[in-house]
Write a structure and sequence with these properties.
Elements (H helix, E strand, L loop, with lengths): L2 E3 H11 L4 E4 L6 H8 L6 E4 L3 H15 L3 E5 L3 H15 L4 E7 L15 H4 L6 E4 L6 H13 L5 E7 H4 L2 E3 L17 H13 L3 E5 L1 H5 L3 H11 L3 E3 L25 H9 L2 E5 L5 H4 L2 H5 L3 E6 L13 E4 L2 H15 L7 H12 E3 L10 H11 L5 E4 L3 H9 L8 E3 L9 H11 L5 E6 H6 L4 H6 L4 E7 L4 H10 L20 H7 L3 E5 L5 H15 L2 E7 L21 E3 L11
Parallel strand pairs: 2-3, 2-4, 4-5, 5-7, 6-7, 9-10, 9-11, 11-12, 12-13, 15-16, 15-17, 17-18, 18-20, 19-20
Antiparallel strand pairs: 1-8, 14-21
C-alpha cells in the first residue's frame, strides 16, 4: 500500500461520498486541504464564501435540496466559532452536514497558540459528534465515520478539527479498497404496526401529520399512498411542505399558532386521531398543549427514540425510519381492508378548506403582505424552490404560499437564524442549476448575510430575492406592541430610501446584482416577471424590494383556537357536515 498526502485521501473520500461542491473560506491552518481540493477542481467545486456562517448555510441549502451530506470548511479560531450558528441550524433541523476546520499544530494546542480554540468542545451541544484528529492514520476512518453518523438515524451535522501538522502528513491509504460505511435504517416493530392500523381503522376523524422526517427519509410517495388508500387527510408541518401538493384533495394545510392555515387548525381541533410521522411537536406548531392534545389520540413515529413522548404522551409510540414504517403500514392496511372511499370526514375537511381562508386580493397602497404572496403564487410555477428564514415575512409565507413538491420549500425551522435564506439559496441553485430558486427575505434578515450576494455574482449564480420591507424588526414589533404596549428598539427605518432605511436595491447593485423597487400592487407581477428574466439572462442575483404596510401584523395566538386575525378573512360557517363529536 502506497503513501499519499493525508488531505488527498480526504478529497478522495469526499468524491466517493457524493460531494460535488464544498463551501468555505481558505486560511493558513486549512491550506493543505485546499491544496488537495485544487487538484480535483473538475470533480469538486470549491465556493469561497464571504463569511463562515454563510458557508455553512450554503452547505445546508445544498444538503436540503439534494438529500446528501453538505460540506463547509473553515480555518482555525474565529472561523470555527463563526460556523457555530450554521452548525446549530443543521442540528436543529436534522440536516446532514460535515463542517471541517483547521487547527494549530498539535504542539501548540495547550500553549494558547494564535487562533487556537477548542472548537471540538464548543460545538458539542449542536453536533451528533465532533472529532479532533490527533493521528494522521485516523483521517480516512474519521471521515468515513463522519459521513455515516451524519446520515444515520436522525440526520445532523458532524464536525472534524484538523491540526495543521496532521494535515501535512502522509498516510498509507488505498482508495480502491475503501468504501462508504453502511447506514442502518431502523425497522418498525410489526406488533406496533398492527396496533397502529387498529387505531387508524377505528378512528372516525383521523389526520396524518407529516413532519420533516418524511422528506428526510424520502417517504413522501408512501405517505400519499397510505393517505389515499385510507382516505385520511394530511397536514404537513412547516418542515414538510410539499410532501403532499397544496391542491391535493386530501391536503389540509399547516397546523400551528404562527405559520398555519385557518382551515387546518379547524380540522385538527375536530380530529380524533393524529398519526404523526417524523414530527417533533415544536411549540410554534402546537401552541397550548392542553388544547392541542384534548379529545384526540396520537400515534407518534420517529427514528429518534428520544423524540417519542418528549412533548406529548402518545397513545402509541413507534421507533422507526419513516419510510420503513409507512411501507409497513401500507402493507398491513392492504392486507386488512380494501381501498376506502371518501367519508363524511373527508367531505367535511374539503368544506372547511373552502370556507375558512385569508383574503389575498387586497389592492391597497402601501402594499398589504398578502398581496405579495398572491403575486408569488401566480408568478412562480410548482417546480420553483423557495428559501426563507425567520420573521413576519416567513409567517406570512407560511400562511399564504402554496407548495406542490417536496424539497421545494426550504426553511430554517427550529433555529431560525436571520440571514439564512440568501446563502441557502446559493447552495440550492448550485445543486440544482436548472431549477428556479427564489429567496423570500425580510429587510432586517437581508442585512445579516447580505455580503453573500457577492458570491452569487462572482460565481454567476442566478436567483430571485423577493423582499418584504416594512422598516421594522417585524416579528418583535408585533408582540412588543400587543404584549408590552411599547415600540422600543424595533424600528430600523431612517430618512433614506423613502424613509425605509437602507437602500437595498443599491446594495445589491453595488455588488454587481440587479434590483427593482415596488410600491404599488399593480407593479408586483411585472416586477417578478422582470426579475425572472434578468436573473437567467445575466446569470445574476436579482432583488425585488416591496414596500409593504409598516404596521401590518400576522395572525398569531397562544393556541390553535385562539389565533388573533389581523386583516380580512373568508369566514363562511359551513351549512352542512357539522362535526360529529363522540
Amino acid at each position: 500500500m502506497r503513501k499519499m498526502p493525508a488531505m488527498d485521501a480526504v478529497v478522495s473520500i469526499l468524491i466517493d461520498e457524493g460531494v460535488e461542491t464544498v463551501f468555505g473560506i481558505p486560511g493558513a491552518a486549512i491550506l493543505p486541504l485546499y491544496q488537495s481540493l485544487s487538484k480535483v477542481s473538475d470533480r469538486i467545486q470549491s465556493v469561497t464564501a464571504r463569511h463562515e456562517e454563510g458557508a455553512t448555510h450554503m452547505a445546508d441549502g445544498w444538503a436540503r435540496i439534494t438529500g446528501r451530506v453538505g460540506v463547509a470548511i473553515g480555518t482555525s479560531g474565529p472561523a470555527g466559532t463563526n460556523m457555530v450558528t450554521g452548525v446549530y441550524t443543521a442540528w436543529a433541523d436534522s440536516i446532514p452536514m460535515i463542517t471541517i476546520t483547521g487547527q494549530v499544530p498539535r504542539s501548540q494546542l495547550h500553549r494558547e497558540g494564535f487562533q487556537a480554540v477548542d472548537i471540538v468542545n464548543i460545538v458539542k451541544p449542536v453536533v451528533k459528534k465532533s472529532f479532533l484528529v490527533m493521528e494522521p492514520a485516523q483521517i480516512p476512518w474519521v471521515f468515513r465515520e463522519a459521513f455515516r453518523i451524519a446520515r444515520e438515524g436522525r440526520p445532523g451535522p458532524v464536525h472534524i478539527d484538523l491540526p495543521l501538522d496532521v494535515q501535512k502528513a502522509e498516510i498509507l491509504y488505498d482508495p480502491s479498497i475503501d468504501q462508504s460505511l453502511p447506514v442502518f435504517r431502523t425497522p418498525p416493530n410489526p406488533a406496533a404496526i398492527r396496533r397502529a392500523v387498529d387505531l387508524l381503522l377505528q378512528a372516525r376523524r383521523p389526520l396524518i401529520l407529516a413532519g420533516g422526517g418524511v422528506i428526510t427519509a424520502k417517504a413522501e410517495n408512501l405517505l400519499r399512498q397510505l393517505a389515499e388508500y385510507l382516505q385520511i387527510p394530511v397536514s404537513p408541518t412547516l418542515m414538510a411542505w410539499g410532501v403532499i401538493p397544496a391542491d391535493h384533495p386530501l391536503a389540509v394545510g399547516t397546523v400551528g399558532i404562527q405559520t398555519h392555515t385557518r382551515s387546518a387548525n379547524r380540522v385538527f381541533l375536530e380530529s380524533d386521531l393524529v398519526l404523526a410521522v417524523g414530527a417533533r411537536f415544536a411549540e410554534r406548531h402546537t401552541g397550548d398543549l392542553a388544547i392541542y392534545t384534548r379529545d384526540r389520540q396520537f400515534i407518534q413515529i420517529d427514528v429518534d427514540p428520544g423524540q417519542i413522548g418528549r412533548i406529548i404522551e402518545p397513545t402509541l409510540g413507534i421507533v422507526s425510519d419513516a419510510k420503513l414504517a409507512l411501507g409497513a403500514l401500507l402493507t398491513e392496511v392492504r392486507d386488512r381492508v380494501s381501498p376506502q372511499s371518501p367519508s363524511d370526514w373527508v367531505d367535511r375537511v374539503q368544506v372547511l378548506r373552502d370556507s375558512y381562508d385569508r383574503v389575498m386580493d387586497i389592492e391597497t397602497v402601501p402594499i398589504h403582505p398578502a398581496r405579495v404572496f398572491k403575486a408569488i403564487n401566480l408568478s412562480f410555477g410548482p417546480d420553483t424552490v423557495f428559501t426563507t428564514a425567520i420573521g413576519l415575512y416567513q409567517i406570512w409565507s407560511g400562511q399564504f404560499q402554496r407548495v406542490y413538491r417536496p424539497r421545494h420549500y426550504l426553511v430554517c425551522g427550529q433555529a431560525g437564524p436571520l440571514g439564512w435564506e440568501i446563502p441557502a439559496a446559493i447552495g440550492v441553485k448550485l445543486a440544482r442549476p436548472q431549477q428556479e430558486v427564489v429567496a423570500v427575505v425580510g429587510d432586517y434578515s437581508f442585512e445579516f448575510l447580505v455580503e453573500e450576494i457577492a458570491v452569487a455574482v462572482q460565481y454567476r449564480i442566478p436567483f430571485v430575492m423577493v423582499m418584504l420591507n416594512n422598516g421594522y424588526l417585524g416579528l418583535i414589533r408585533q408582540p412588543s406592541k400587543y404584549q408590552y404596549q411599547m415600540n422600543y428598539g424595533v424600528d430600523i427605518s431612517y430618512d433614506h430610501n423613502d424613509g425605509m432605511g437602507m437602500d437595498n436595491v443599491a446594495m445589491v447593485e453595488a455588488m454587481g446584482g440587479l434590483g427593482r423597487r415596488v410600491t404599488a400592487p399593480h407593479e408586483l407581477e411585472p416586477a417578478l416577471a422582470w426579475a425572472r428574466r434578468e436573473a437567467e439572462a445575466h446569470r445574476l442575483p436579482v432583488l425585488v424590494e416591496v414596500f409593504i404596510q409598516r404596521e401590518a401584523d400576522a395572525a398569531m395566538g397562544p393556541a390553535l383556537d385562539q389565533i388573533r386575525e389581523f386583516g380580512p378573512v373568508i369566514d363562511r360557517e359551513p351549512e352542512l357536515l357539522t362535526p360529529q363529536k363522540e
